[in-house]
């Protein structure tokens, strides 16, 4: 039987529900206490999940808690993770690691000094869709990948989130901080680290209107660019054109397409765990479908719409696997997959995209990482219930 770690949750908002659901899938953690800057949010979360709500201070000094799960807003990730480390606890945060590269770097340095683990979402690249794509790429099914296209584009969160302002804030706002981590982590898993980027940014609208909740109808000012077009060159030579936008009403492009010298691949949604990988090896040929719905982390596990607006009625969502895998790595003294170096590299790409758009100049990616290792069947089996 796997040893079960008691996890303390800080940040009891929308995504917390998904992590509690992960208790069903993984065998080595249990969220036993929670805290939030807003005590009402912590109390509500504790009541729903039958755990104890405490203050942040109490949680950080609780000797029974070895790991902090940091599900606060991006702008608070750094400070909360830092406090966890300073209190001798491992920490696993939602994406991104921090909202600027310097803070991320300080965090990784502190963790190394304290010999503690820092883990970070996204863990979606550990899902069936990304892992199947990786396997086919490693087997050279489409040969050497030369180019690719990736896109996340939608109209923004203001229509269905009661407090959308932080997505459009000067610090920590914009689509690169919000959705970039999924796409960039998936690409680094598929292609290895990135080396340089050239970017252009635009702001679609100066103001937006809140569409839901107590502030419905209220106008607010957009303080950051909301569309970025980036060309990213990877160390292996692949060039990817990445579009990230909060200004697009609708589109029909694929999330990620990779073009190799022997064929093309369509990679499923990097924000999810399942989906099919499609491959075409000849112009005009039918796309071969590589399904992932029989894979442990690709099986449909969402069969009805939950309370969360961005969760479709049928889907594979195993968020929390990164935390579980990190716990296994702590126990076996190994490097975890959603590790600080990977998330700091991704943060370095995010930072360079912003800088390149601001300066209208190509930027070198300053912090590199190793390409993540494959998530083997054996490794998955060891943490699954
Ligand atoms: N909502 C989603 O669908 C979703 C999906 C994937 C990832 N995420 C990520 O999860 C994180 C949280 O997102 P969310 O949608 O749950 O946000 P949310 O705004 O619903 O919840 C965040 C919670 O953190 C608390 N908080 C803020 N600052 C704090 C601080 N300094 N100390 C303690 N608590 C603090 C807030 O009071 C709030 O209860 C973000 O990093 C987001 O990018 C969200």
How many helices does DSSP assign?
11
Instruction: Tell me roughly what share of residues is in helical segments.
Output: 25-40%
In CATH terms, what is the architecture of the domain at 127-314 and 340-354?
A: 2-Layer Sandwich
End-to-end separation in angstroms reads 10 Å
- Strands across the major sheet, in which order? 16-15-14-13-7-12-11-8-17
Outline: globular
User: N-to-C SSE series?
Assistant: EHEHEHEHEHEHEHHEEEEEEEEEHHEH
Q: Which distinct ligands sit in these coordinates?
A: nicotinamide-adenine-dinucleotide
What does it look like?
30% of the residues lie in helices and 22% in strands. The chain is of the alpha/beta class and 385 residues long. It has a domain of 203 residues: 2-Layer Sandwich (Dihydrodipicolinate Reductase, domain 2), CATH 3.30.360.10. The strands form three sheets. The chain has a nine-stranded mixed sheet. Strands 3-2-1-4-5-6 form a six-stranded parallel sheet, with helices on both faces. Strands 9-10 form a two-stranded antiparallel ribbon. Strand 4, helix 4 and strand 5 form a beta-alpha-beta unit. Helix 9 packs across helix 11. It is globular. The termini are close together. The model has no long low-confidence stretch (mean pLDDT 96). The structure holds nicotinamide-adenine-dinucleotide. Nicotinamide-adenine-dinucleotide binds next to helix 4.
Label this structure with key terms.
alpha/beta, Dihydrodipicolinate Reductase, domain 2, 22% strand
């Amino acid at each position: 039987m796997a040893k079960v770690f008691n996890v303390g949750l800080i940040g009891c908002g929308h995504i917390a529900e998904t992590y509690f659901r992960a208790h069903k899938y993984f065998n080595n953690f249990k969220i036993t206490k929670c805290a939030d800057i807003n005590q009402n949010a912590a109390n509500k979360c504790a009541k729903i999940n039958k755990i104890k709500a405490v203050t942040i201070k109490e949680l950080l000094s609780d000797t029974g808690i070895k790991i902090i799960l940091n599900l606060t807003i991006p702008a608070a990730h750094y400070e909360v993770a830092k406090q966890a480390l300073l209190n001798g606890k491992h920490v696993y945060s939602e994406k991104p690691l921090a909202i600027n590269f310097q803070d991320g770097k300080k965090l990784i340095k502190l963790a190394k000094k304290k010999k503690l683990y820092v883990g970070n979402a996204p863990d979606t690249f550990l899902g069936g869709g990304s892992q199947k794509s990786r396997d086919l790429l490693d087997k050279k099914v489409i040969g050497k990948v030369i180019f690719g296209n990736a896109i996340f584009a939608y109209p923004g969160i203001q229509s269905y989130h009661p407090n959308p302002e932080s997505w459009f804030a000067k610090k920590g706002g914009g689509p690169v901080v919000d959705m970039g981590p999924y796409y960039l982590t998936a690409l680094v898993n598929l292609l290895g680290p990135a080396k340089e980027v050239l970017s252009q940014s635009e702001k679609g609208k100066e103001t937006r209107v809140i569409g839901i909740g107590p502030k419905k109808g209220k106008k607010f000012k957009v303080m950051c660019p909301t569309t970025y077009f980036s060309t990213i060159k990877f160390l292996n030579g692949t060039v990817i054109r990445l579009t990230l936008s909060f200004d697009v009403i609708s589109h029909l492009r694929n999330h990620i397409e990779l073009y190799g010298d022997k064929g093309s691949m369509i990679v499923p949604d990097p924000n999810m765990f399942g989906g099919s990988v499609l491959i075409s090896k000849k112009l005009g040929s039918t796309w071969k479908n590589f399904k992932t719905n029989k894979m442990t982390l690709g099986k449909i596990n969402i069969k009805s719409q939950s309370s969360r607006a961005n969760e479709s009625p049928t889907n594979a969502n195993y968020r929390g696997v990164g935390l579980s895998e990190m716990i296994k790595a702590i126990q076996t003294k190994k490097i975890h997959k959603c590790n600080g170096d990977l998330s700091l590299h991704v943060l370095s790409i995010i930072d360079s995209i912003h800088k390149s758009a601001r300066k209208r100049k190509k930027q070198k990616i300053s912090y590199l990482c190793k390409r993540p290792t494959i998530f083997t069947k054996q490794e998955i089996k060891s943490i699954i219930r």
